[in-house]
Amino acid sequence: VIFIGIISVIIFALYFRDLKRNPLTTKKMIVIAMMSGLSFMLGLIQFVKYPQGGGINLLSSLPILMVGLLYGPITGMTCGLVAGLISLIGGAYIIHPAQFLLDYILPTMLLGVSGIFGSDSKKNIFIGCLIAVLLKQTAHILSGCIYFGAYAWEGWDPLPYSIVYNLSGTGVEGLLSSIVLTVMPLAKIKKMANIPSVTKVS
User: Fold this and answer.
1) d(Cα 94, Cα 96) in Å, to the nearest integer?
2) CA distance linking residue 38 with residue 51, whole number of Å
3) Listed residue (199, 189, 28, 22) closest to 118, CA to CA
4) CA-to-CA separations, 26 to 31, 33, 104, 165, 199, in angstroms, rounded
């Protein structure tokens, strides 16, 4: 719990530092509101629903990943933060503050780092999205291992159970969202929306 708290503090400290250096414009705030709302709506369309939460839905990660690719990690993480807060409307199962962060705040925020390598090539788009999805899954896996290990299948340890449970559900959805974004004409979308190129993070 202490480790999770320290990591969370570091993430939020870096996030707010960069947000202060690059304040959100009115246009970005409108995009964030629209895309976070769209993510919530897509999350309601579930193809597979798991008993302890999660499953496979209609590409709810895609809007947040797209914002990260089009506007950069800070705007993307802001969109993820708003989306995480909106998801609480549908009900939340909270047993500990650290579990709340791992399941409802950090996962969607981490999706926003999809633009870490920019969006100038299909390779950078896919790798950036994949890293963002893996970071999101890491948060879910930690939560499942620490707080929901009691639900592990018979003969399974909490860690492998959490890995399989999360990767087979939200992990699949995140991968599909990444593939869809890779084939989308993001360059044309950026040009039509008059979005400047995102600087790659070194």
Assistant:
1) 6
2) 24
3) 199
4) 9, 11, 26, 39, 20
Q: Write the DSSP assignment of 139-158 as a string of letters.
A: HHHHHHHHHSGGGPPTT--H
8-state DSSP, 171: I
Whole-angstrom distance, CA of residue 120 vs CA of residue 195: 13
Please state whether 101 falls in left (phi above 0), alpha (psi between -120 and 50) or beta.
alpha
For residue 178, give the nearest of 100, 141, 126 by alpha carbon: 126
- Give the integer Cα–Cα distance in Å for 131 and 149: 25
pTM confidence score: 0.87
Q: What is the DSSP letter of 116?
A: G
- What does the pLDDT look like over 88-130, one tens digit per residue? 887 778 888 888 888 889 999 999 999 888 888 899 999 999 9
Residue that has been written with the tokens 């897509």 in this structure:
42
